[in-house]
Design a protein that fits this description.
Elements (H helix, E strand, L loop, with lengths): L1 E3 L5 H4 L30 E2 L3 E9 L2 E5 L5 E5 L5 E5 L7 E2 L10 E8 L9 E9 H13 L1 H16 L7 E10 L9 H15 L5 E6 L7 H21 L12 E2 L12 H7 L1 E9 L6
Parallel strand pairs: 5-9, 6-9, 11-12
Antiparallel strand pairs: 1-10, 2-8, 3-4, 3-8, 4-5, 6-7, 8-9, 10-13, 11-13
Length: about 290
């Protein structure tokens, strides 16, 4: 683990980034799946997924689980959406617009075809706690102006590829991992919170988290592993270090690209199994 100055390749990653949010994961609620859903007469049970909604696009949402893995799940008119935890544990029906970014959810899913098919997962039932919904609503309503400002800045960044230098990279913190693993050490956790605390003092600072792997393993495996590592760091920063979701850019997995050291030695591979946490400040407000 170490603190380094502006790292190579970070600026190019900013072009396609969007704002996201995440939060904590809660225990699964035991609800039976909706048996009324039928697609072409064939369907199979999908996995139960517990995680946090990090993005919505029409009738699809991205859910990130505690290990950093992300899953795209479709929502349709037959999906039952319920909030619980009220008086006597009664569940109340909710509309799709209740599925806010940052909301911890438990989802029962199904897919068309058999269990071995690669068809899309569809939510039959989505459950969450009233208290978590209230928190997600407060975050959205209380920070809407900041979300809009950050979204505008991101869109401006997309449209002006030559203006990436408008952001200053104030510092980069790197945490490292064992081969094929995503677990954070106690030292890593302490360093992440130290980084968040230092960045918190800069009112306009954003965090860009990028995951990497060494050259061990296939391309698909390394891509997923780098994303899981970035997701694990994101979750810890927000859940344990208090970093606000609206000040976080979308985590990125770069697999074995942009190595910090050659992959032909054990020492070099150890340096490449990393997640970089970059503290960014727009040059237009840096120093204000």
């Amino acid at each position: 683990m170490g603190m380094i100055s502006k790292s190579s390749g970070v600026r190019a990653l900013l072009v396609a980034l969007t704002v996201t949010a995440s939060g904590t994961v809660f225990a699964q609620q035991q609800d039976a799946p909706d048996s009324s859903i039928v697609v072409n007469g064939v369907k199979s049970a999908g996995p139960d997924i517990k995680g946090v909604i990090t993005a919505r696009n029409g009738d699809r949402m991205k859910v990130v689980t505690a290990d950093g893995a992300s899953t795209i799940i479709a929502v349709n008119d037959a999906t039952q959406i319920r909030a619980g935890g009220g008086l006597f544990g009664v569940h109340s029906k909710m509309a799709q617009d209740a599925l806010l970014n940052g909301l911890p959810v438990t989802i029962k899913t199904w897919r068309a075809g058999d269990a071995q098919s690669n068809s899309e997962l569809v939510a039959s039932r989505i459950s969450f706690r009233n208290s978590d919904f209230k928190t997600a609503s407060m975050i959205r309503n209380g920070t809407s102006q900041r979300f809009e400002e950050q979204t505008a800045a991101t869109e401006n960044l997309r449209g002006h590829l030559g203006d990436i230098d408008k952001y200053n990279i104030k510092s980069t913190t790197e945490v490292h991992f064992d081969t094929g693993k995503t677990e954070l050490s106690a030292q890593d956790k302490a360093q992440l919170c130290n980084t968040a605390s230092a960045a918190q003092a800069q009112e306009n600072a954003l965090l860009l988290v990028v995951g990497y792997t060494d050259s061990t393993g296939g391309d698909d495996f390394n891509q997923q592993l780098s994303e899981k590592r970035a997701g694990r760091v994101i979750n810890y920063l927000q859940q344990q270090c208090g970093w606000k979701p609206y000040r976080m850019l979308t985590p990125t997995g770069m697999a074995k690209a942009d190595p910090a050291a050659p992959n032909d030695t054990p020492e070099g591979k150890a340096q490449n199994r990393r997640v970089a946490v970059n503290v960014l400040v727009s040059k237009s407000v840096d120093g204000l």
